[in-house]
Amino acid sequence: MKEILIKTEGLSKSFSSGGTMQHVLKNIGLELYKGDFTVIMGASGAGKSTLMYALSGMDTPTLGTITFSGTVISDLDTDALARFRKEHCGFVFQQIYLIDTMSVLDNVLTAGLLVSKDKKALTARARELFEAVEIAPETTRKFPTQISGGEAQRAGIVRALINTPSVLFADEPTGALNSKAGLAVLDTLTACNERGQSIVMVTHDMRSARRGNRILYLKDGTVQGECDLGRYRPDDAARHKQLSDFLAEMGW
């Protein structure tokens, strides 16, 4: 039986816009499992990113509870949530947000030093991670403006992994990349998952979605359906058809 990593009960998120209440998430009950590569899909405005931000503690729900690694994070105050995210969550976004005035390595170490003061151990882990994502040592000494977009996004993944997070959250991680760079990032995420890293990824891209083993489809703030693809295997035509048929059924 899979271990539950994140559980939501009655999760709802609303906000006021122009005097009208907008209900972005509506009474979502969900279980995410340790070791899964979970993909959240849906049309624009369906609530995908809002759900990811709530699951990670970056945003607080209007109603409902979120239990993450045994902690009810929806009950935590702002400071406690920030500490929890630093210790348990890694984030990869469409925009990479590396600091241009620091080397690639220092960008990663700065994130690590927020949690651990053992710079020697952090540097060793960073080097291992850079090697795993195929970034050469000489590249880590460059500034973000001196490397390609694909290299920068893979460096962003290293930064997200430096503190050994319980979950890696990725929001459209290939959205700003060309096909070749995007494929390298997807290969990196797949390899991380194969080593046991739990991943939750928001995407509207079929190629990216195929990397997940579990697909959740959001529509109008609710989970309309899910699809179990099993573990990713390259050149799996049946996998592509299964996902295509599921998305067609969901009206995507």
How are the SSEs ordered, and which strands pair?
Blueprint: E1 4-17, E2 20-33, E3 37-42, H1 48-55, E4 63-68, E5 71-72, H2 78-88, E6 89-93, H3 104-112, H4 119-132, H5 137-140, H6 149-161, E7 167-171, H7 179-194, E8 198-202, H8 206-209, E9 214-219, E10 222-228, H9 237-250
Parallel strand pairs: 3-8, 3-9, 6-7, 7-8
Antiparallel strand pairs: 1-2, 1-4, 4-5, 9-10
How is this structure best described in words?
The chain is an alpha/beta fold. 37% of the residues lie in helices and 28% in strands. It is built from nine helices and ten strands. The mean pLDDT is 93.
Which descriptors would you attach to this protein?
alpha/beta; 28% strand
**Global shape:** globular
Strand content: 25-35%
Radius of gyration: 18 Å
Query: In sequence order, what are the helices and strands, one letter per element?
Result: EEEHEEHEHHHHEHEHEEH
Q: Give a count of the beta strands, DSSP E runs of length 2 or more.
A: 10
How would you describe the oligomerization state of the chains in this entry? Answer: single chain
Q: Give average pLDDT, whole number.
A: 93
Q: Based on helices, strands and strand pairing, what is the structural class? A: alpha/beta
Low-confidence stretches: none
Query: Largest sheet, described in full?
Result: 6 strands, mixed
